[in-house]
Every structure is written in C-alpha cells, then in structure tokens.
UniProtKB/TrEMBL annotation:
Organism field: Heterodermia speciosa
InterPro entries cross-referenced by the UniProt entry: Cyt_P450_sf
Gene Ontology MF, one: iron ion binding
Residue ranges that the Swiss-Prot or TrEMBL entry lists as coiled coil: none
Name this polypeptide is given: Uncharacterized protein
Lineage: Eukaryota, Fungi, Dikarya, Ascomycota, Pezizomycotina
Domain of life: Eukaryota
Length: 495
C-alpha cells in the first residue's frame, strides 16, 4: 500500500459508514473516520480500551521492549504521567532544558554552513547533505539532510549531554534507518521478513539500544558517586530532565529491555517530530512568495541578528539573540505557518487495543440526508485506529495558506493566531507520538533564527519541485531531498 491516507479516504467514501475493518496479519483493525463516531470512541475510552495499549505496543514493536516487563512499564508510567517533563519534555513555563537548547541554537545557527571546500573542514551536517561551495559566497546542499542533521546536533546534546554524540556519531544515520521501516515495525513484521530496509532497521535499533544502555550505566554510576567507565568521562552537561528520567528508572528498577526503548522513543520522537517539522516549515516559507520578508519583519524583535565589528582585521561570526517567549506570544504569522504545517505535513494516528466489547452509535442529530441510525460493534481483542490526518488535510489543497489560523482580536486592533482548537488533538493520550510546548518553542526558535541569518534559494525557482511525503505514522520525511543554495544575509554592524 503506497499511499495509506488516500486508500483510507477512498474506502471511507465508498463505505459511507465512517468505520470499516481491515484484516492485517490475522488481526482485525477497525478504522474510524467519522467525527460523530470519534466522539463516541473518546467517551468509551475509559471502560472498553486498555490503558497505555498504544504506547506499550509501540515500545515492543518499534523500539524493542521486552513484552515480559509490561507491568514494570505500567508502574513507572504512573509516575511519568505525574511528571510530564520526565516523560516527554513539555511544560507551560520555560525550563532549564529549553534555556540550554536555546543557547545552543543561538551559537550554532551562525555555523549552518562553513563555506569550506574540503569535507575535512566541514561540519557533520554539511557532509551528510553533500554541501558544495559555489561562487565563493554560496553553498549548495540537500536541504532535508542539512536542516535535520544540523537541528539534531543543536537539540540532542542539550538533552543527553555533548558526549553522547561524540561517543556515537552515527546515531542520526541509525535513527533514519529505524524510521525508514517504521510502518513495517508497527505491523509487527519479523526481522527475517524479506524487506531489505527492515533488516537494516533491526540492526540499527540494536546499535541504538546498546548505546543507550551504555549511557544509562554511566549515568547510574555518576548518580552513585562513582566515575563512569570509558568512553564516558564528563556527564555534567546531561540535562536535569534526562537525569530525572534515569532516577525514575532506578526507582522502579526498570530492566534495560524497558528503559532503553523508553529513552530511544524519546530520542526518536525529538528527531523525527521536532526536526522533520523544521524542514517542512522552512521549505514552505522559503517557497512561498513574499512570506520570508513578512516573517522577518514580524520576528525582528524576537530573533535579532547582527554582525560584530572586526577585531584586528579578523571577521567575527554573526550574533543571534532569540526570545522564545516573544516568538510564542508576538509572532502570529509564524505560529500560523507552524500550525498549517502541523496539518499538511503530519499523519498522526491514535491506536487503541479493545479489552471489552464496545458499541458505537451515531445519534440522530449527526445523521445526514437519508442516512439511517446505525450501531457498530468492536469486539474485545481487536484494534481500533483513528487516522487524524483524514480530518485535517484536503488532498486537493495546493496552496500553503500561511494565514489560515490568523483571526482578528476581540478589539479588532491586531491579528492573533487561533490554532490549537483546529489543529491535531494531541491531548489524546493514545496519540503515538506526543507533542508539547518544548517542541513548539524549539521549532519556532530554529526557524526564526535561520530566517534571520540565512537566505535559502531553490536551484530551480521557476519550477519548484515540492517533495512528496513518505508514508509515516506521524511527522513525514520527503521521498526525495531537494537541493538548495544557502547564502549568509548581509547584516547591520553591531554598535
């Protein structure tokens, strides 16, 4: 099935019921696409749906958790839910992790490209994007590889400490291999199944699990007042959030076969939710006429870029100052673009394991035309899936629609963004990959910072080839990368 979303739409339109079933590997999957039935599902979630079923299934099938330790996971998850920043770092107030990550972003965005000819002098993100110096003042690179690898180097060290990437520089390649077979792993296909990428994904997952297990042993030794074993030396810059997670694992005595997959899920989520969306947001902004200048004007006081005066004839790198609070509160056009990308470039899905027979019914006020009342039974042991993208995306849409979520304020004096009510309902606890304010803040900061310092131009502006989305359970990657030319903006000299 090359395009599951189109398939689901077509079957839903033909069935005219808003629910249909598929037999996949001997198990019944009930797909709900009708909004009225969705409300019924959410109402019955507390009595007929097994709690944490989606997360545990995901941990076992995708990230390699051992099924024997489900109860240990459930015990730890109660504390994880009580401390959201220990589960996935989302919080309502700026945290130390957010502050540290913002500082790293400010320092690294001026180094997006080095203008070096040889690969030896290039950064890891330049090498992965096949960056080439052209005309002396511009670099041509594969945009997806450049942006995602760069963002990963800016974000992950803030969470795991700088030594993690130094010790395991191949972590991003392994994460991509794991992501490439996500749909096969979610279906529970065994590693010997004759799909080449599936075997590579299992090998990559094994390397990732080993690296995280080594990291956990080092953190636990430091917590006990001992020195970590080589290759680990200085663990002082590991975030408090990560230390808190590891303390939670020790409290519940979680085995490596559970805590490793839990942290691998966190690393994967940050890398392929936050970072992929940064690529799509930048691509859509730079590909929409006049939008770049509009957002630069809006973010001028939230993302300040300047060029220091030369000292002793040596050019200084540009300076960047970011205000995460201002970006979130005073930049409605940028946030509208962000919410629009959440609709166009994500494919979130909620998955439930049914533990008791349930009946969902359309009420009379939800019926259309000659439609008759109907009830649908979902039996215990079956699966129920809600493909949220069916409700958020129109396949006929061709324009970005940057201002879709802008509305007039109550006073009519300004425009404000009205996004969360209309975007993806990620407060659903069974959405596979949660998304919070930490993620949103980092995306806005990275995008605003790159817009402030860099000009990006497609190599074929007269025929912009917008890449297709790969099949993904959440934040999509492009089928093919796009080649862009990167130049540094001319900035005013700092006083």
């Amino acid at each position: 099935m090359r395009d599951p979303e189109r398939f689901i739409r077509q079957v839903s339109e033909r069935s005219n019921h808003g629910i249909f079933s598929l037999q996949i590997l001997g198990r019944t999957w009930n797909i709900v696409t009708d909004r009225a039935l969705l409300a019924q599902v959410y109402q019955l979630a507390g009595t007929c749906i097994e709690p944490s079923s989606a997360q545990w299934s995901l941990l076992c099938r995708v990230f390699g958790a051992n099924k024997r330790f489900k109860q240990a996971f459930l015990n730890a998850r109660e504390d994880m839910c009580g401390s959201p920043d220990l589960y996935v770092p989302h919080q309502s107030e700026p945290s130390t992790l957010l502050s540290t990550t913002t500082q790293r972003i400010q320092l690294q965005i001026p180094q997006l490209v080095s203008f070096s000819e040889g690969s030896v002098d290039q950064s890891p993100w330049e090498r992965s994007s096949h960056a080439e110096l052209v005309h002396g003042d511009a670099v041509e690179a594969d945009l997806f590889a450049l942006i995602t690898t760069f963002a990963g180097h800016a974000i992950l060290p803030s969470l795991l400490g700088s030594e993690f990437l130094d010790t395991y520089p191949g972590v991003f390649d392994d994460l991509r291999k794991l992501d490439s077979s996500m749909k096969y792993l979610l279906l529970g296909l065994p590693r010997w199944f004759p799909i080449e990428s599936l075997a590579s994904a299992n090998i990559a997952r094994h390397r990732l699990d080993n690296s995280i297990d080594s990291f956990h042993r080092a953190i636990d030794k430091v917590a006990a007042g001992r020195k970590p074993e080589l290759p680990w030396r200085d663990m002082s810059d590991v975030s408090e959030e990560m230390k808190g997670r590891c303390a939670l694992w020790r409290k519940h005595k979680l085995p490596p076969a559970v805590k490793g997959p839990l942290d691998l899920q966190l690393i994967w989520t940050i890398n392929f939710n936050v970072i992929n969306l940064i690529f799509w947001l930048l691509l859509r902004i730079y590909s929409t006429p006049n939008l770049v200048e509009q957002i630069r004007t809006e973010t001028a006081f939230s993302a300040k870029a300047s060029q220091p005066r030369q000292s002793f004839g040596i050019p200084e790198p540009p300076l960047l100052e970011l205000s995460v609070k201002r970006l979130s509160q005073s930049c409605p056009l940028l946030k509208s673009c962000f919410y629009r990308c959440m609709r166009l470039d994500t494919s979130p899905v909620s998955i439930y394991s049914i533990c008791r027979d349930m009946v969902i019914t359309k009420s009379r006020q939800d019926l259309f035309g000659n439609e008759r009342p109907a009830s649908y039974q979902v039996k215990a042991g079956e699966m129920l899936a809600i493909p949220l993208q069916v409700h958020h995306r129109d396949l006929q849409e061709s324009n970005f629609g940057a201002e879709t979520f802008l509305v007039e304020s109550e006073t009519g004096s300004e425009q404000i963004v009205d996004g969360p009510r209309h975007s993806i309902p990620l407060d659903d606890p069974e959405t596979l990959f949660p998304f919070g304010e930490f993620s949103e803040s980092i995306i806005l900061a990275l995008v605003a910072g790159i817009l402030a310092l860099w000009d990006l131009e497609s190599l074929h502006p007269e025929q912009p080839a917008f890449p297709c989305h790969q099949t993904s359970p959440n934040f999509s990657s492009p089928v093919d990368d796009v080649r862009f030319r990167v130049r540094r903006r001319r900035l005013s000299i700092a006083k």
